[in-house]
Amino acid sequence: MPETPLLLSNIAYVSPADHVLIKSIKHNYDIKIYYLKKTGIYFRVLSKGSDTFGEELFMKNIFATKKAIFISGLIIGIGAALMQRFGNPPNMGICVACFERDIAGALGLHRAAAVQYLRPEIIGLVLGALLAALLFKEFKPRLGSAPIVRFVLGFFSMVGALVFLGCPWRTLLRLAGGDGNALIGLAGLVAGIWTGILFIKSGYNLGRNQRTYAAAGLVLPAIMIGLLVLLIARPALDTGALFFSEKGPGAMHAPLIVSLIFGVVVGVLAQRTRFCTMGAIRDIILVRDYYLATGIAGLFLGALATNVILNQFTPGFAGQPVSHTDHPWNFLGMALSGLAYALAGGCPGRQLFLSGEGDGDAAVFVIGMIVGAGFAHNFAIASSPQGVGVWGPLFVGIGLVVCLSIGFSMRQRI
Amino acid sequence: MSYNISTMRENTIAEQIDARGLSCPQPVVITKKKMDELGSGIIEITVDTATSRDNIERMAQNQGWRVAIRESGDSYILTISKEQ
Asked: Taking the model in full, what pTM does it have?
């Protein structure tokens, strides 16, 4: 990459046609912010009297501040709690794992009649992230980083989530609804992420991705549009497809347009702020950074406040909506999920937003989750409010072995 | 308040890190490792996503390093520096 350092003396030679004055602030110094059109550099010139001091080169993402991510979290949390009012299941205003499972059901990948619906929220999350990425020139189609491994990680992260009955977003929402079992799940999530960090520190990585065609980066968004078309068209075939629950959580859903708009709004906010529930916990442990954590704090507080106001807060352990009290498996299920998310570089929500940005590897993780959901319900792995499924514990064990093996075998000295 | 980044560049050879194509959290992890190894100096990191750019910027600033960023084609180059 041919690059010339921008030395102070160069400023004197930049003609008026080549740069644009963006902002002018008077503080202790006069601060002028310029944009150099040819090179795409923003630089700041500080001057006092006739002295011009050095300059810095920088670029600012105004959404990537603690204030912005906290407010985004609040909006997501309040919105999620309100979505319950609009028809989504209790303590499940939004749940990436559960909703992808519902989509798997609608497509007939499993036949658990109570959980089949093409959740527009998932569609909105991807398309919202895509929209934000395109608007802010962050759509970067890329793939090639051990996709089959990411498929497996997605598969087992769903197994873990369905044994606990929630993804990290839902864990926070359940907590905000008073579900004490979510505390156990959260502890498991932290344990799983902590284990993933051990691997990351010892050189685990899945290899570099590469730029690819824009069309390749648009595949998952296109699939989501296809699902939206299916949802609107609601074909009814002799085979039984499209499968839509008549009872149970799958039958509890907000109106299509409300769900879609909510998903898109969250997708935009989450893409801009880099929202990630796994990253929030990981960054506290790994680099002692609280930026992402501020976001999930906002989500939790927004949901909690809304639940209290709307009388949706019912503290306790037993009898919580779509929840069970088999604590060892609440813990271990989320531990498996947390480990898988850490090894894949993002929580399920983040994988959807990355897919919207053009990340084909994240898209494969999403597909892995959907397939995992189909498999989990067909093989009695998913839990129910009555407790774990017959093969739930077995597959959590298998998943932990698989993920630990991935962690151990894919390290290089860095 | 002194902005010496250009002077430093004349006198110091920057350590280079190519973090393109690496997914979260690798860019931050390898940058932090180099920062801890050097303690001070100049490090140039090339990344190709805005998220990595934001993450490294934040982490470096938290650690007390100065950060300058520029675009280069599809990538971003962060020049972080800390004086002795």
From this structure: 0.88
